[in-house]
Every structure is written in structure tokens, then in C-alpha cells.
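As a warm-up, study this chain.
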Amino acid sequence: MKARATVRLKLTPDKKLTTVFRALEPETHLTLGVRSRASLKKERNLLILNIEAEDSVALRAALNAYLRWMNSVLNVFQALEAKTRKSPSF
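Now compare it with the structure written out below.
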């Protein structure tokens, strides 16, 4: 592999970290293409994504895919939190 990227995402509480990890981890077992591979792990309050690729184009494609997926999961959390704040308490 010629190109590498590491993304460290700090997430708290642990429930968010675990949810994002569980949502994305199955994707690391599938190959986005033969030119890249990814791994995901948790360390304390960090989600660590490692991507290795044959070239910068494949690295960029894989990185964009994983970052979009992470962003989607975090957007769901944000929407749920906003809804919870708006709900009237009885």
C-alpha cells in the first residue's frame, strides 16, 4: 500500500462512540475496492479509522466514504438530541 490515512475522532459519551463503531465496523470487512482497505478500533474515547490504499485516488474515495458514514450517524444523534430538547416535559 502506498497511501495511508488515520482519522482519530473523539466521541463522548461512550454510547456515541460505541454506536458509531458498531455502525461502521461491518463496512471494514467489505472491500470498497481492491485498491483500499480499512480498519476501525476504539481506544478510550477515540474512534480510530486507518485506511491504506494503492494510490491517492483510492485513498480519497475510501476516506470520503467513511467520513460521510460517520457524519450521517452523528447527524442522527444531533437530530435526536434536538428533538429531546424540544419535547415538552409533563
